Every structure is written in C-alpha cells, then in structure tokens.
Amino acid sequence: MGQSNLDLDRLNVLLHALPVENMPMTLSELDGFVTGVLACPEMIPPSEWLSLVWGETGEAEFPDQKTAEETITAVMAHYNAVAEMMTRLLWVEPIYEFDPNSDERMWESWVDGFTRAMGLRPDAWSRLLDAADEETQATMIFMMALQDIYTGKSKFTDEEIDEIDLEAPDLIPNCVAAILHQSRPELAGPGPANLPGQPFKASPRPGRNDPCPCGSGRKYKQCCGRN
Known about the structure:
Blueprint: H1 5-16, H2 27-39, H3 46-54, H4 65-89, E1 97-98, E2 105-106, H5 108-118, H6 122-131, H7 134-151, H8 158-183, H9 185-188
Antiparallel strand pairs: 1-2
Helix pairs in contact: 1-4, 2-4, 2-5, 5-7, 7-8
C-alpha cells in the first residue's frame, strides 16, 4: 500500500531538517535513490546505503534520539512502499520536484538519485548492460544520458535536450519497468510483463521471526515487517 501525502510531507520535512551544509538528499532524490537500490541486480542492505541519505559526510547529526528514530523510520517506510509497488506491479511512480514558476515537472533530482544508487554496484550494472536485450540496453543508456544532461556533459543539441526534458517525466517509469524485467526477473515471473493494472502474485513473505530479506540483520517483524 502506498504512502499518504501526509506521510510524504512529513518525510520531506524531516529531510529538510538535516544539516543543509552536508547536502542531504531531497525527497525526489531519495525516491530515485531507493528505486535504484531496489532495481539493482544485487541486494544492497540498508546498512550500506542509509547513511548516504544524510549527505556527503554520511553523518546525520540528529539533535536527539527521537528525531533520529523518526527520520530513519520515515525513510525506511518510503523504501518499503517503493518496494511494495515494485513487487506488486513491477512499476514505480516517481516523485518529481516542480518548478514553482512554471509548475513544470523536474526529473533531474530523481535521476541523480537513481544513478547514485547505480554507483553502489557499478560492476553489477555493467554486467546487466552487457547481458540485456537491445531494448533494455537502450533504456539504461537513456537513463545515463539523462544524468549527462543534468550534469552538463550531454552531447545532445539544445533543441534535443529541450525535447527530452519534456518527455523524460513520462518515460522514466517505463524505463524502470524495462530495467526491472532484466535486473529483477524474479519479480516478473514466467508470464507476460506485469504492467500497471496487472498485478502479479508476489513470493510469500518471510516469517515474523525470520531474518529480514533487506539484509539489516534484524528479524523481519522488527524491520520491514513493521510496515
């Protein structure tokens, strides 16, 4: 079940409360980041990526234990919500920022988060690119091209970039779906592709006292099973 707007608003507030000088992730960047973590061909435990949410130093500098627990819980709840949608529908609904002047959807932070997650397992993504079919290869290259546009390294003309800029928000969910069919084939199963509106049967959940599959080392009931 997806998160409510109230949950997302609270998560946004908590992320903004982190020390700005550490350059913590925005909500849009976090959404792209956890999507990239979950789409990776190799499992990446929260113990490896969670500190990156707090910023470049990896230090959250929470003012007290209550704030630390609330922020970590909110981040993990969002991670679990993205995982649930990905598992149930093989689909994501990116959270984009909006230009306050034009109300235009801005995809750049989301893509930056996604590609930062790819950087956690570059070899795994490289192997996937080599083994993927042509459609998925083109999709992965397109995602990397979006990052090049964001960082100012693109070889596209200004006219081409303007066109891509308009189309990217609608193309990104389809790109992620195509990647998931290759990177997480266990989600797709043997049948036809699971598109929005065509949920598939997920694997059974672990027992409440079993180790959590996220890799945290805690019991399922004390980790992802709490949500």
